[in-house]
Structure formats: C-alpha cells, structure tokens
Automatic annotation (TrEMBL):
The keyword Plastid does not apply. The keyword ATP-binding does not apply. It comes from Nothobranchius furzeri (Turquoise killifish). Residues 1-33 form the signal peptide. GO terms for cellular component: extracellular region. It comes from the Eukaryota. This is C1q domain-containing protein. It is found in: Secreted. SMART domains: C1Q. InterPro entries: C1q_dom (IPR001073), Cerebellin_Synaptic_Org (IPR050822), Tumour_necrosis_fac-like_dom (IPR008983). It holds the Pfam family C1q.
Amino acid sequence: MTSAVQIKLPSVTESTMKFILLTAVLFCGLTSAQDVVAEDTVDTQSCFPDMCKFLKEFGAMTEKQSSMEARLKEAETQITELKKKDATKVAFTVGLGGGQVGPFSTATTLIYKTVKTNVGNAYNPVTGIFAAPVTGIYYFTFSYHAGGEHPVSLNLIKNNEVVVGVHDHRSSGDGADNGGNSAFLQLQQGDQVYMQLVANTHLYGHIAVTTFSGVLLYQL
C-alpha cells in the first residue's frame, strides 16, 4: 500500500507581502528625496539596488513555493486515486440449483441463487445479473451439466450481446454432458454480464457443477 508523505511548506501571508512591498516603496521614496534635500542625503543608491535584488529573489522564491505546492497537491491526488483502486475488490462464484432447467420458448436469463462468494456485491442473486462497479479488466467463467435427451445452448452475455457460449446437440446414445467456457472482458462501470439459456434448450441445475464466476483483475 502506497503511503503519502505530507510536506508542509511555510506560506507567505498577504500581510507579509504588503509589508515587504511597503518597505520597497519607502526606499524608493528616500531615493527620490535626494534631489530635494541634498544636505541630508544618505547613501540610498547602494540600498535601492539591494532592495530590488531582494524583491526579485523573493518573487522567485514565492514562485518556486507555489510550484512545489502544486506538485504536492498533484502527488496527493494520485495517491488518493491509487488507494481507491487498491480498495476495490470484486469476485463472485454462484451455483444454479433446481434440477432440470428448460427448455423455454424464449431465451432466458439464468438466476444463480446459491451464492458461494460475492465480494463487492456486484452480482445480484435476484436478477442473475453482474453489474461492473468500476471500469477494468474482468475474467468470467461458467460450467454446466445436462442430459443428452435435449440440446444445450448457453451463452455469456455482455449488455445484450453474446460474448462466448457452449453448445451440444441432442444425442440418444449420450447419457450426460458437461461443458464450460470463459472470457476476459473490458468493462465500463455499469456494464452488465449474465448467463442466458437459448430458447428450446436445457441444462441441469446443480450448485456444484452448473456455476458462474467472475473476478476483477485490475482497474483502468
């Protein structure tokens, strides 16, 4: 974890600046008075260049301080953003129970109600939809179990578009089927990912075999 080192620089107050400028004006006034009161003149010619030099150095110092303060503020902002990114944890694994699922007359979103892990609570067990809490690269994987008496067609969906899927044809000589797939996805905050069973296909719900998982790898 990156920790911030705060450096507090002494600031030049407005009253201090006014005092210094007033002093400069007084020196300038004394210099101009030499032509009027010659007998009381003092050697201000040597003082005036020194004051100008001082003001120039003082201005440079003030500018340098402002630059350093701006850099410190930028560094603190970057550290805060890094802390936010490091604090975001997202991971889930859910299982689908209930035995025979489908076939349905239309494509159906599967609702995995058995929640094994849901760090960050980005998966909704009521709707079956995962909503990305932050922009980043995510990894998703799913598996299924099904009988051979019906075809299987299961897709991983991102915002209503098919990303990857699995398919298996009906086979009279095939007693059972198992399969799965996975994908890396770049998601924006709010993007939705879920599993969808294609119309007129089926699978067998088992909380340990028919599963859906996802994890945030890193933020962008």
